């Protein structure tokens, strides 16, 4: 029997794949997405257009993968193809097996571009917050080193005579770190006061409007009024808050970044 006669006896092979696929309700694109074989090659199997795929070795590989997905006997179908395939190779070149959905994926989708844009915005925001906090920590470290150096130079040794100036006058930095209770005498229940006992980056938003933002030194005191205030601090342990006559204390630990919301409407 010549090659043409052999091909004519293989019509049941393609029909077997087509019938099994349609019985399961799959389109060629559905199958291609699951088994990563281009739908053009799946269609060639069902149409028995072997020349569209290439050499028999590739045809047998595709037949096995397609058959396993449909629940067919992969080896039996591959043997049927091998027994009836022409002896000459159809093509020595390997086909592109991975389905690209008929070549439609030529670039990123709108959803992918949107996800990339959102990611870039988040990275930019986190970078900005980190940069502000880095500036605060750098400045705070420099200030602390200067205070420690001044304190060390002012401390008398065993051979030094006592310094009446140092013993009589406290350090100006130490004197600035005091309790906010004595400097925040608020009476209105809808007023909020912020007192920085240590240097900190600070942002205060009152009723949706940014009232202050930046790095502020120890001793800074600000008051605000409205309905709601949101405070974000880069050094939560150095920011004391009072609402009306209630002293709420520091917003968190020293060096912590914290954000809190304070209702200012009188109860």
Mind explaining what this structure looks like?
This protein has 267 residues and is of the alpha+beta class. Among the domains are: 82 residues, Orthogonal Bundle (434 Repressor (Amino-terminal Domain)), CATH 1.10.260; 88 residues, no CATH class. It is built from nine helices and eight strands. The strands form two sheets. A four-stranded antiparallel sheet has the order 4-1-6-7, with no helix packed on it. The chain has a four-stranded antiparallel sheet with strand order 3-2-5-8. A hairpin with a 2-residue loop joins strand 2 and strand 3. The protein is rod-shaped and about 95 Å long. The N terminus is likely disordered.
Could you give a quick summary of the protein structure above?
This protein has helices spanning 3-8, 11-23, 28-35, 39-47, 56-70, 74-84, 110-154, 164-168, 172-176, and strands at residues 191-196, 200-206, 209-216, 221-225, 228-233, 239-243, 246-250, 258-263.
């Amino acid at each position: 029997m010549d090659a043409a006669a052999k091909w004519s006896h293989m019509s049941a092979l393609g029909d077997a794949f087509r019938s099994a696929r349609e019985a399961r309700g799959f389109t060629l694109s559905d199958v291609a997405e699951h088994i990563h074989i281009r739908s053009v090659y799946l269609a060639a199997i069902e149409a028995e257009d072997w020349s569209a795929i290439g050499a028999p070795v590739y045809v047998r590989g595709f037949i096995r993968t397609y058959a396993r997905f449909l629940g067919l006997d992969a080896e039996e179908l591959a043997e049927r193809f091998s027994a009836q395939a022409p002896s000459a190779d159809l093509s020595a070149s390997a086909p592109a097996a991975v389905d690209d959905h008929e070549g439609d994926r030529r670039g990123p989708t709108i959803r992918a571009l949107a996800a990339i844009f959102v990611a870039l915005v988040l990275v930019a925001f986190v970078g900005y917050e980190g940069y502000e906090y880095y500036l605060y920590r750098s400045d705070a470290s420099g200030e602390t080193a200067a205070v420690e150096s001044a304190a060390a130079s002012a401390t008398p040794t065993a051979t030094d005579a006592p310094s009446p100036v140092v013993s009589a006058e406290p350090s100006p930095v130490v004197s600035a770190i005091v309790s906010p209770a004595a400097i925040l005498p608020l009476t209105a229940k809808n007023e909020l006061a912020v007192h920085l006992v240590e240097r900190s980056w600070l942002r205060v938003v009152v009723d949706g409007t940014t009232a202050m933002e930046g790095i502020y030194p120890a001793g800074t005191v600000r008051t605000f009024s409205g309905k709601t205030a949101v405070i974000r601090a880069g050094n939560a342990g150095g920011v004391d808050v009072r609402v009306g006559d209630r002293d709420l204390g520091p917003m968190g630990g020293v060096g912590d970044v914290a954000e809190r919301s304070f209702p200012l409407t009188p109860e």
